[in-house]
Amino acid sequence: MLSLVAGRVVPSGCAHFGPAVGNAQVWDAVGMEVHLVDGTYELFRHFYGQARSGRPSGRAGTRGVVTSVLSLLEDGATHVGVATDHVIESFRNELWPAYKRGDQVPDELRDQFGPLEAALAALGVAVWPMVELEADDALASAVAVASADARVERIHVCTPDKDLAQCVDGTRVVLVDRRRRITTDEAGVVAKFGVPPRSIPDWLALVGDAADGFPGIKGWGQRSAATVLSRYGHLEAIPVRAGEWDPDVRRAIVRAEGLANELAATRDLADLFKVLATLRVEPDRVAGVDQLAWRGPRGGFAEIAGAIGAPGLVARAEALADRRRS
User: Fold this and answer.
1) What is the pLDDT of residue 17?
2) Cα-flanking dihedrals φ and ψ of residue 181, to 5°?
3) Structure pTM?
4) Which domains does the chain have, with CATH numbers?
5) What SS3 class is residue 129?
6) Alpha-carbon distance 184 to 175, whole Å?
7) What is the mean pLDDT of residues 112-125?
8) H-helix or E-strand spanning residue 5
9) Stretch among 24-33, 69-78, 279-288, 302-311 having the lowest mean pLDDT
10) Which of 46, 110, 124, 251 is the most buried (most CB within 10 A)?
11) What is the DSSP string of 258-269?
């Protein structure tokens, strides 16, 4: 597959298959690729896609996600993990009550998280249903685990969520928007947001994130945040008074003094928003890379596939597993 990386078209591949040993597929140690999927985003996308088409949703969201993940495997993915928000609320709601809440999600959609998690597990995919933390935190934790494994050549974080841009690292850890077929590396993050991945939490703290329910700092926009952070990197390094800012930064921003004053007056709020935007990395919550290896569907997949109205997935999954064992 060809992907757009920082404005360039580049090949996007998957791990190489090694010879089969017994019933287990052996993957080449060099060139291993890991695919980490934002299951919550995928569920929302497929659920609302069915709603817009006018078709009854039922288990359509679950069916769509499972079909999509199987397609990912059929395209060559070998090591796959999916994170979900089993409970929409997280520790962030205690810090900021207006943070995204479960009561903002339709019951019919919220009730599909459990069945989705069961269906993916039966497909044989590693699943991380998050409760205290969010799916994004699980993905960030999985990135940390995979990044520490020298066998892993590339990590594909399958989501368009800008929060995950903070996990991007060079060309080794990339974001993949599977719907739009766009892959974004570190240069792509800088081109899009004006700051490197390490500054994304600071950028979000200033600009805000409507999807997550926090507004950012009054007066600060994407351009001003990018201009200041491209020079200082993090909130903590931004001088309090505009007169202390780098002259080039001051000249680039018309309302530099007003922005500096607003940030100084709401510094505690900005710090809080940065905490909300910073993904929590807890490696112990996710499986190691070897546990992400797909070895075929498990017992019970046929029953679940039938229940979600997709019995044809069984033959596809079994055929794929047979090909990888041969």
Assistant:
1) 37
2) 60, 45
3) 0.89
4) 2-17+25-194 (3.40.50.1010), 197-277 (1.10.150.20)
5) strand
6) 5
7) 97
8) strand 2-5
9) 24-33
10) 46
11) HHHHHHHHTHHH
